[in-house]
């Protein structure tokens, strides 16, 4: 590592130590301050490859990602409960402090999907929707206004809070559905979806994520789209990183790395119409290598030209 990397890792370690000493990760002044510091350190574009750091740092990163996931879940539960106390929760949704980030991320994902999918999807699945399913809500409200959204989460209390948010809305209550189940126990239903979104924190390490992706590759409809959230550079201390070459059974279409306050990278892939085999049939499905190294860098600092920028990128490729 270079000096700059050493300094970054040192700062992340210090914050990790402080976070790990907290009695609870529920929203509070101390919790909010530490996670804000962590995000601000990891947000600036940085060429560091956190997956190649030493084992000691890797172990810390793995624990930190789980702490971030726990804190994120508690934050969403807190605000979902608060929103649920209103007669019309969605009228007050902008009280969630990161709502604007979800607006940007959802627009980015919708725009990327529109580049590759020629029709409006009729049924979409969101895996790991949580107690505050903002992506589904924003996409259904602003972008995919005729699409039905099936939200999957393993936590019954999360789904209960989420359902309460949309039950008072006459439109979304008819188009948003919530399923309490481990996605690894869902099989034939997956073929019913045109698009499957996989939340960043479903599968918190490479092995877990790969297991979920392989399950989706087995049961999703041929030609259906998979939208995944990853991370890039130092942002890999906050979220798991997806290597496009690990998406066996899928053709990776694009990878976008935002450089603003939208933390997650976006990967879109399409399930192959049929398994691709090598001449030695015993080796099983493989992914074409041509797309593995293709990374489209997206810079959304000029938000007004987001769609035009993406259109230009499409022409260049």
Overview of this structure, please?
This protein folds into two domains: 3-95; 99-316, Rossmann fold (3-Layer(aba) Sandwich), CATH 3.40.50.150. By secondary structure, it is of the alpha/beta class. Helix 3 crosses helix 6 (156-166) and helix 4 (99-116) runs parallel beside helix 9. It has nine helices and seven strands. Strands 3-2-1-4-5-7-6 form a seven-stranded mixed beta sheet. Strand 6 and strand 7 form a beta hairpin. The radius of gyration is 19 Å and the shape is globular. It comes from Aquilegia coerulea. It is an enzyme of class 2 (transferase). This is Nicotianamine synthase.
In short:
This protein is α/β, with parallel strands linked by helices and 317 residues long. It has 2 domains: 3-95; 99-316, Rossmann fold.
Summarize the helices and strands and which ones pair or pack.
Elements: H1 3-20, H2 29-42, H3 55-84, H4 99-116, E1 123-127, H5 134-143, E2 148-153, H6 156-166, H7 172-175, E3 176-180, E4 195-198, H8 206-219, E5 225-230, E6 250-256, E7 265-271, H9 306-316
Parallel strand pairs: 1-2, 1-4, 2-3, 4-5
Antiparallel strand pairs: 5-7, 6-7
Helix pairs in contact: 1-2, 1-3, 3-6, 4-5, 4-9
